[in-house]
Amino acid sequence: MAQAINVEDLNIYYGDFLAVEDVTVTLQPRSVTALIGPSGCGKSTFLRTLNRMHEVIPGAYAKGSVEIEGSDIYGPGVDPVNVRRRVGMVFQKPNPFPTMSIKDNVLAGVKLNNKRISRSASEELVETSLKGANLWEEVKDRLDKPGLGLSGGQQQRLCIARAIAVKPEVILMDEPCSALDPISTLAIEDLIHEMKQDFTIVIVTHNMQQASRVSDRTGFFNIAGTGKPGHLIEIDETEKMFTNPSNSQTEDYISGRFG
Amino acid sequence: MSTPAAADPASTAPEQDPAQSPEPGGSKAVAGRRSKRRPGDMIFTGLSVGSGLLIFVTLALVAIFLTVRSIPAIRDSKELGGGPDAISLWSFAAPLVFGTVFAALLALIMAVPVSIGIALFISHFAPRRLATPLGFMIDLLAAVPSVVFGLWGGVWLVPKMQPLYELLNTYVGWFPLFGGDPSTPMRNLATASIVLAVMILPIITAVSREVFLQTPRLQEEAALALGATRWEMIRAVVLPFGRSGVVSASMLGLGRALGETMAVLMVLSPGATFSLHILEVGQHNTIAANIASQSAEATPDVMARLIFTGLVLFVITFVINALARAIVSRSAKS
Ligand SMILES: Nc1ncnc2c1ncn2[C@@H]1O[C@H](COP(=O)(O)OP(=O)(O)OP(=O)(O)O)[C@@H](O)[C@H]1O
Ligand SMILES: [Mg+2]
């Protein structure tokens, strides 16, 4: 299920503005890769090019190639819709569908993809997805209640359940805990740990403890200055990145000597 | 934020400016003194309360006028035991009410889907280069006077629709709406409804577009990230989000269609039946068009009857608006 992602010579533009320059990297399957770096260095931008979500923004485009399971998601004739079914995404702010119940939220992706699904199969999918997101015990008695009635942390786990329900190969998370309290954050970090058995996970975070807690590898992005493109400075085993990085910029950043 | 201070005034009092001291009644007195010191505030308050009252008074005056002046018609009607040769108010007003509501509903049925389509196109499909001028054009359409629509409908549209009506009547004539025996020129309710539909299209489109544009971006991205196509995203997120807005926009349109006068007057050749055959000529009329065509040479008792139909129209639009509000506030809650 989980697949490696090979990124080669990726340049990302917003109109004329080059936001991220020359990223070449391999993201390992069945592992968690954390992306850190100062604000505005292009972490979110890079993350969104991994499932072509940047194309939602008018004028945004990417050059280069991103291969998942050997096929380029930017290849000719590749439908971004199909890419997004294989590469799921969890956003910074929990965003369950407000008009849907908890159950319908979990099933939303499956129903959108127009798959016909029997009642028993859908009940099973709801249960496994919610269990996969460590939310089942908390909501199993109120599956028909609106998703918005949950706490922020529960909503975020509902969004994770929704993302894993479509059985993607990769899950991208853009600061998934930044709107949550410490307890909910820990719950999600535990969840990420369990999820890497099945998925390739890429997570953007500003919290370096979080990066060191959840990730196997960490990548550091930086920019030379405003208006300059972001670069992937270094990517390595998380332990090495936080104890003995090879690049001095990385060392400055993680030791708080940035800027 | 303000609750702790209110719950424990003693602790915050020493730090506060003496003018805001929380002694009993103090804050009220302060507020009162302040607003007296600012003439601008007073003038503005006076103006806004005054105009609020003015609207209320005007509405009441209109209602009173309609009621009082239609009393003779009600009193002398056959239903309330007028003389043996009294005219039945029911048989006078009911076909008009039927025609009015029928025409407005037909217009709504035609206009709403088209409006939603245009609004979605402008808000979610068209490139910005195209969306802006298109939105502008729709707004312009709203500014065209209804006489112009009436002229266009009566002179241009009526003959143009004739072949289609004949086809419908021949092949789908078993369906009540298209049955009957249409004769030329086809100044029928169908054409009148089309003109009404064109007239209410801009308002429904404009309001719907505004609501669709307000769909939270995060919701849209949630759907897209799940692998939704654009249309699936619209179905899952944009339409549910915009539903109450579309309902209220449609009700606005319905209100306008119910009261529209000139377009109907200039297109429809009138009648007074409860016929469902919208292609047949001389079967229907609307309250507003009837009042406009009759009032100039009306005798006092005819006038009273016309005013009575005006009262009915007033009540209908009132009820429609109340209904719209109820629907909107209910869907806002859920
Ligand atoms: N929609 C957009 N249109 C134009 N430029 C954008 C857009 N989104 C981001 N940018 C620019 O791209 C660069 C990278 O932004 P991005 O959001 O990827 O940074 P980030 O590393 O995620 O920052 P943060 O940590 O604050 O989330 C910034 O210079 C930003 O101004
Ligand atoms: Mg970001």
From TrEMBL, chain A:
NCBIfam families: 3a0107s01c2. One of its GO terms (molecular function) is ATP binding. PANTHER family: ABC TRANSPORTER I FAMILY MEMBER 17. This is Phosphate ABC transporter ATP-binding protein. Keywords: ATP-binding, Nucleotide-binding, Translocase, Transport. InterPro entries: AAA+_ATPase, ABC_transporter-like_ATP-bd, ABC_transporter-like_CS, P-loop_NTPase, PstB-like. It comes from the Bacteria. Residues 5-248 form the ABC transporter domain.
UniProtKB/TrEMBL annotation, chain B:
It holds the Pfam family BPD_transp_1. SUPFAM superfamilies: MetI-like. Keywords: Cell membrane, Membrane, Phosphate transport, Transmembrane, Transmembrane helix, Transport. The chain crosses the membrane at residues 43-69, 89-122, 134-158, 189-207, 302-324. It is found in: Cell membrane. Residues 1-34 are annotated as: Disordered. PROSITE patterns: ABC_TM1. It is a multi-pass membrane protein. Residues 97-324 form the ABC transmembrane type-1 domain. Residues 1-14 have a biased composition (Low complexity). InterPro entries: MetI-like, MetI-like_sf, Phosphate_PstC, Phosphate_Transport_Permease. Signal peptide: none annotated. Belongs to the binding-protein-dependent transport system permease family. CysTW subfamily. PANTHER family: PHOSPHATE TRANSPORT SYSTEM PERMEASE PROTEIN PST (PTHR30425), PHOSPHATE TRANSPORT SYSTEM PERMEASE PROTEIN PSTC (PTHR30425:SF1). Part of the binding-protein-dependent transport system for phosphate; probably responsible for the translocation of the substrate across the membrane. This is Phosphate transport system permease protein.
